[in-house]
Design goal:
Blueprint (H helix, E strand, L loop, with lengths): L13 H7 L3 H9 L3 H18 L17 H18 L5 H10 L3 H20 L2 H20 L2 H17 L2 E6 L5 H13 L4 E3 H4 L6 H11 E8 L1 H5 L1 H16 L4 E6 L9 H4 L4 E2 L5 H20 L8
Parallel strand pairs: 1-2, 1-3, 3-4, 4-5
Helix pairs in contact: 1-2, 3-4, 3-6, 4-8, 5-6, 7-15, 8-15, 11-13
Pfam family, one: TIR_2
Keywords: Membrane, Signal, Transmembrane, Transmembrane helix
Subcellular location: Membrane
C-alpha cells in the first residue's frame, strides 16, 4: 500500500485531476468551488434560508430573549444563533450542517438546507467567469476590511452589518405595470433562481391592506427598488406613485437605491428625472447578470459604508 506522499495523486485538487484528464471545462467549474470565500458564502446563504424556514416552535436552540411580537427581530436573532451554533460545532460544509440538523431530529430542515445549498451552487455554476471573479473579489474585499479592524470595532460593526442585512425581508421591490406582467414574472423567476429575494406585488401584498400601505411597506422592507420602465409604466398613475415613494426613501436613506430597467423603452424618451440615474436595458444580452450584480453590489457598498470606508451618494 502506498503512503500518501508516494501516491501520484496526493495533494492534487479535483480541478487538477480534471485538468490532467483533459477536461478543461470541468476543471474551470471545479475551481469555482475551491475558494474559501465562496464556500463560506454558500454556507452562510444556506443557514439564512434554514433560519427563515424555522418557526420558534421548531427552533432547537435557546430562545430566551427573543420577543415573538416583533417578526423582524425574531428573524435576526434566529439567524445569529444558528450561525453561532454552526461555528461552535465547526460545521464548514453542507455535510456537517446536514449531520447537525439530523442529530437534532430536524430531517425536514436537513432537506431544506441541502436544496438551498444546491440552489446556491447552481447559481455559482451558471455564473460567467467574469461575474464569478467579481463576486469573489467583493467577498475578499469585505473580508480584508474586517481583518484590518481592531477586534472591538470588528465585533460591533460586523454585528451592525449582519443585523441590517437580516432586517430586510427582500433584496428588491419590483415596480411594474400590470400590462407587463408576463415579462416581469420572467425576470422575477430568473432573479429568484439566483437567490435574489424579490417583493412582487401580485404575490406578496397582503389581502385587505390598502395599496398605499402595501407600497410603503414594500419599500421599507426592501434593500432597493427596481423600476421596470415601459410605455405602460409611464401611463400608470399608480406606477408613478410607487416610484415616487421609492425616490423619497432613496433621498432620506443613505445607501438606498432605485434601479431603472428599460423594458423596450428608448433611453432617449426617458423623462429628465430618470436620466440622472444609470439604467439597465432589458433587451441586452447580459441583462439578468447585470441586474443581479447591481442588486448585490448595494449590500457590499452599504457594508463598507457602515464600516466607515466609503461614503454613499446615489
Amino acid at each position: 500500500m502506498l503512503a500518501d506522499n508516494d501516491d501520484p495523486w496526493f495533494g492534487l485538487k479535483p480541478s487538477d485531476l480534471a485538468q490532467e484528464a483533459g477536461y478543461d471545462v470541468l476543471c474551470l467549474l471545479l475551481r469555482k468551488f475551491e475558494s474559501d470565500q465562496i464556500r463560506k458564502f454558500m454556507i452562510t446563504r444556506t443557514l439564512e434560508h434554514v433560519s427563515a424556514e424555522m418557526s420558534l416552535d421548531d427552533f432547537f436552540l435557546p430562545t430566551d430573549g427573543i420577543i415573538n411580537n416583533f417578526p423582524v427581530e425574531v428573524q435576526k436573532q434566529k439567524v445569529q444563533r444558528l450561525k453561532k451554533w454552526a461555528h461552535s460545532k465547526k460545521f464548514k460544509t453542507i455535510q456537517g450542517i446536514k449531520a447537525g440538523l439530523t442529530a437534532q431530529g430536524r430531517e425536514k430542515l436537513c432537506v431544506i438546507a441541502a436544496e438551498r445549498y444546491a440552489n446556491v451552487a447552481k447559481v455559482i455554476t451558471d455564473m460567467s467567469w467574469k461575474r464569478y471573479e467579481s463576486l469573489r473579489e467583493d467577498l475578499s474585499t469585505a473580508q480584508f476590511m474586517f481583518q484590518e479592524l481592531p477586534i472591538p470595532a470588528l465585533e460591533a460593526q460586523s454585528q451592525e452589518i449582519s443585523m441590517e442585512h437580516e432586517s430586510f425581508q427582500y433584496d428588491a421591490f419590483l415596480i411594474h405595470s400590470g400590462e407587463d406582467k408576463p415579462k416581469v414574472e420572467e425576470v422575477l423567476e430568473l432573479l429568484e433562481s439566483r437567490d435574489i429575494r424579490c417583493c412582487y406585488a401580485p404575490r406578496d401584498f397582503l389581502p385587505g391592506r390598502s395599496i398605499l400601505s402595501c407600497i410603503e411597506d414594500a419599500v421599507e422592507l426592501s434593500r432597493c427598488t427596481v423600476v421596470m420602465v415601459s410605455e405602460n409604466f409611464m401611463k400608470s398613475t399608480w406606477c408613478q406613485h410607487e416610484r415616487d415613494v421609492a425616490e423619497v426613501k432613496a433621498k432620506d436613506t443613505e445607501g438606498y437605491s432605485v434601479i431603472p430597467v428599460l423594458l423596450g423603452f428608448k433611453p432617449s424618451d426617458l423623462p429628465s428625472a430618470y436620466k440622472v440615474k444609470k439604467f439597465i436595458l432589458a433587451d441586452s444580452q447580459d441583462f439578468i447578470p447585470t441586474l443581479v450584480k447591481a442588486i448585490e453590489g448595494i449590500f457590499l457598498s452599504r457594508s463598507l459604508y457602515l464600516m466607515g470606508f466609503i461614503s454613499l451618494h446615489y
